[in-house]
Amino acid sequence: MTYYTSAHWGIRLAERDDDGRVTLRVHPGDADPNPIGLDQLEDGVQKVRVRRPAVRKSWLEQGPGAALEKRGHEPFVEVSWERALDLAAAEIDRVRKTHGNGSIFGGSYGWSSAGRFHHAQSQVHRFLNAAGGYVRHENSYSLGAARVLLPHIVAPMPYIMANHTSWDVMRDHTQFLLCFGGVPWKNAQISAGGILRHHLRPGMEAMREAGIRMVNIGPVGDNLENDAAEWVPSRPNTDTAVILAMAWVLLDEGLEDRAFLDRYATGFDRFAAYVRGEADGTPKTPDWAEVISAVPAGTIAQLARDAAAQRTMLNMSWSLQRASHGEQPLWALVALASMLGQIGLPGGGFGFGYGAANTLGSNEGLLPGPTLPQGKNAVTDYIPVARIADMLLNPGGTYRYNGEDRTYADIRLIYWAGGNPWHHHQDLNRLEKAWQKPETVIVNEQYWTPTAKHADIVFPATIPPERDDIGFSTREGHLVAMQQIVPPLAEARDDYDIFTELSRRLDCEETFTEGMDSAAWLRKLYEGNRGVLAKRGIEIPPYDEFREIGLIDFVAEKAPVVMLEEFRADPERKPLSTPSGRIEIFSETIHGFGLEDCPGHPVWLEPEEWLGSPGKASEGWLHLLSDQPERKLHSQLDAGAHSRANKHEGREQVHVNPADAAARGLAEGDVVELTNDRGACLAAVHLNDRLMPGVARLSTGAWYDPDETGRDRHGNPNVLTLDRGTSSLAQGSVAQTCLVRITGPLNVPPCDTAFDLPRIEGEEEN
Ligand SMILES: Nc1nc2c(c(=O)[nH]1)N[C@H]1C(S)=C(S)[C@@H](COP(=O)(O)OP(=O)(O)OC[C@H]3O[C@@H](n4cnc5c(=O)[nH]c(N)nc54)[C@H](O)[C@@H]3O)O[C@H]1N2
Ligand SMILES: Nc1nc2c(c(=O)[nH]1)N[C@H]1C(S)=C(S)[C@@H](COP(=O)(O)OP(=O)(O)OC[C@H]3O[C@@H](n4cnc5c(=O)[nH]c(N)nc54)[C@H](O)[C@@H]3O)O[C@H]1N2
Ligand SMILES: [Mo]
Fold first, then answer.
1. What is the distance between the alpha carbons of residues 451 and 429, in angstroms, rounded to a whole number?
2. Left (φ > 0), alpha (ψ -120 to 50) or beta: where does 425 sit?
3. What band does 2 get if pLDDT is binned at 50, 70 and 90?
């Protein structure tokens, strides 16, 4: 028998042999499949599953708030489901009655299931809403700066995300693809909600065959999928300066498209005055930018002329806005694209994130899909997602966000389902302190992740191959009937069933379940979506037939996409949703917020720490990039064979330029310590001459594994990263702004502790 399952890395076929053993395979209809997750059911991964409900020992013995400094570092006691559910429900009830629902943090950020019903984040939000509400989060780690900035200046991120000019259009029309941060294939392996067909490699290959010139400006030379591409090394976090200097050249040589700027943009003159240096006495010339970025002035000037002379697509990686003042490079890019005047033309304008996920550049249909309604939240309070440690450490503290003065809640209880803050948050030693503030932490997890280990009550959750679901993602061309392939491991339960039991104990079962079990919900969500699609003239079979055929391919809905085409065609009748209806190169709204760290138009502001800080480079500091890992999705399946094969003696590899390694007496495979004021971790050296000297690269995803001193043994860059907001406009994560020292070689044993289970004791009978 063949069944389907699905994950953010792609649709998988499951085959069961005569002995009942299940093998996962990639989908044969995918031209460029990847092997992520094929090891999901293997022993190495199953070994780190949570098998039974567990409670932190001191919490169980002494109650909420006990021995908080031990959270994350003490044994668990396994208890029955009844006992664990009773304890959790009673604690949620105590907290909501004593402190109010505004003291429950249920933000629960993270990339849980591709299945649209068993999506843990949607489940926990629906449950907490039913139970009276919770403090939520806004935005994402991915796009913290962009999601706040873009609606002010051009269009909301969901529009931008879903309407990138497609690969086929670029192949036919683009002449020059100029990238900041590349178009990395490794990241386009995934898409939130799953993938039927991967588009990046075939798309880039077709562009290469069409002879389209490609240039990547950035610290890393191997993240443009094209051997013929040119690499212009630049210091991390300095792209804004390069873009401003390109703008200066266009102005200086009269190459800006005045007609476009007049008709489609506002505020260009104020920006131009800044670029010329009329405002601050510093013209943003290529010579000025060379000192900041290390890109030769002549190269900057020529790239500006080349961009103006032909059909040019500018692309910027999402990572650039995950940095100190991350609003600026993106705003500057939109300003530069406006000066080139090709926005809305086939193959021209700007892209923001080609290579960040499969969706960007897809020509699959923009279709609605099934989603679990989350109900109504009676609590209005929220935080920008990456401000979690700030909130926990400063209850009642104030901060600015998108023009508002806001106050942090006083959080007593955290509920997390479907995320891993010990993967995603910056400055983990700071998070360690913050995490000791709430009296109780409840986590639903499939695996004994560091987050599960940092909980008081852990509920074991099922994985997608253990449950039926519906896989869908817009512009990914499919609806897939995800099947239960194997029974739940040990005592694992679906998140939905866990929340059903809790809601019964909290007198909100009817609100949470509406009287339905999972099977009934799946049918309802599918049939509802079938009706919506039918109104658009798209017929799909009834639910039972869908479950039998397994996969619906929307290949007929494919059509070329040109971003902002309608706006260009008729800006009066199809204005943008910005206050002026046009592209805001100067934003009165943002200007009106009066923020020093994000004024009314794009500007160069020094990052909080960078290679240009006085003395830093000469003192041997390196800029650490912590990019997305090639062999996994964040921290997921880090224990699997595919991820482990890229580790050296059980550790993550830090890429360094051979010159930097030689200067420190380091060779391939040496174990080194990466340190700064915030923390330390170990990693194994990998020499890479496609990395700019002065820059190191340690991909994220290694499970946090601190020794007694707090030094991470496994190679998790987030013990080093900076926990600050991009600016008081967006308060996004600044993971890519980070200086470190690298020393070694160290004589230490291989890392074999990262996937250890916590100490688990059986419950005493009495
Ligand atoms: N230094 C640095 N840090 C970064 C970044 C960076 O570039 N550099 N990038 C940031 C970005 S963009 C992101 S999106 C975040 C990602 O951060 P996360 O999304 O938090 O990372 P994941 O490892 O995907 O965590 C998902 C967790 O959900 C669990 N899970 C999956 N499915 C289910 C389910 O059905 N039920 C339950 N209960 N649990 C489930 C998984 O086991 C896993 O532990 O990291 C951020 N952190
Ligand atoms: N395989 C895999 N794919 C993923 C993910 C994963 O975990 N694994 N995560 C997904 C998620 S949640 C997200 S948000 C996206 C993120 O997508 P991105 O944000 O694009 O991903 P990164 O890998 O952090 O960065 C891409 C490249 O940007 C470059 N870069 C970093 N800093 C700078 C800079 O200052 N200037 C310039 N010019 N270049 C710079 C680096 O060379 C880096 O390789 O990826 C998604 N795709
Ligand atoms: Mo992300």
1. 14
2. beta
3. confident
> What is the 8-class DSSP label of residue 651?
B
Q: Is 99 exposed, middle or buried (0-12, 13-18, 19+ CB in 10 A)?
A: middle
Q: How far is the CA of 679 from the centre of ligand 2 (A)?
A: 23
The reply to whether 299 falls in a domain is yes
Q: Ligand 2 centroid to 117 CA: how many Å? A: 28
The predicted-structure confidence for 161-176, as pLDDT tens digits, reads as follows 999 999 999 999 999 9
Helix (H/G/I), strand (E/B), else coil: 354: strand
- 386 pocket-lining for ligand 1 (C-beta < 6 Å): no
Judge whether 95 lies within some domain: yes
For 150, the 3-state DSSP assignment is helix
Task: Tell me whether residue 33 is in a domain.
Answer: no
Tokens of 690: 């496609």
Q: Phi and psi at residue 473, in whole multiples of 5°?
A: -155, 135
Tokens 């005569």, located at residue = 18
Q: Per-residue pLDDT tens for 476-487?
A: 999 999 999 999
Can you list the positions of beta strands (E) in 576-616?
583-584
Q: Is residue 391 a contact partner of residue 431, using CB atoms and an 8 Å limit?
A: no
Ligand approaching nearest to the C-alpha of 442: 1
Return the ∠ at Cα 365 (arms to 142 and 6), rounded to 5°: 60
How far apart are alpha carbons 197 and 166 in whole angstroms?
14
Q: SS in 3 state form for 409-444?
A: CCCCEEEEECCCHHHHCCCHHHHHHHCCCCCEEEEE
Catalytic residue among 3, 9, 59, 111: 111
Whether 257 and 117 map to the same domain: the answer is: no
Active-site annotation holder among 4, 59, 109, 231: 109
Predicted TM-score (pTM) of the model is 0.98
Are 316 and 408 in the same domain?
A: no
Asked whether residue 342 falls in the same domain as residue 415, the answer is no
Run of H or E including 741: strand 739-743
Looking at the chain, the number of H-run helices and the number of E-run strands are: 26, 30
Question: Residue 396: how many CB atoms within 10 A of its CB?
Answer: 8
d(CA 355, CA 313): 14
Neighbouring-strand partners of residue 384: 138
* Ligand 2 atom nearest to CA at 237: 35
DSSP string, 148-185: HHHHHHT--HHHHHHTPPPHHHHHHH-SEEEEES-B-G
Please give the residue range of the domain that contains residue 690: 622-743
Residue with tokens 């059911």: 41
Q: What is the pLDDT of residues 69-101, one digit of tens each?
A: 999 999 999 999 999 999 999 999 999 999 999
Over its C-alpha atoms, the chain yields an Rg (Å, rounded) of 26
The predicted-structure confidence for 13-57, as pLDDT tens digits, reads as follows 999 888 888 999 999 999 999 999 999 999 999 999 999 999 999
Beta-bridge partner residues of 691: 220
Secondary structure element (H or E) that encloses residue 682, with its range = strand 679-687
The C-alpha atoms of residue 178 and residue 340 are separated, in whole angstroms, by 13
419 alpha carbon to ligand 1 midpoint, in Å? 5
Q: What is the pLDDT of residue 617?
A: 84
**Residue 410 within a domain:** yes
pLDDT at residue 764 is higher than 70: no
Reading the block at residue 212, the tokens are 């389209």
Please give the Cα distance from 415 to 598 (Å, whole number). 33
Residue 227, token pair as written in the block = 């051997």
Q: What is the CATH number of the domain that holds 181?
A: 3.40.228.10
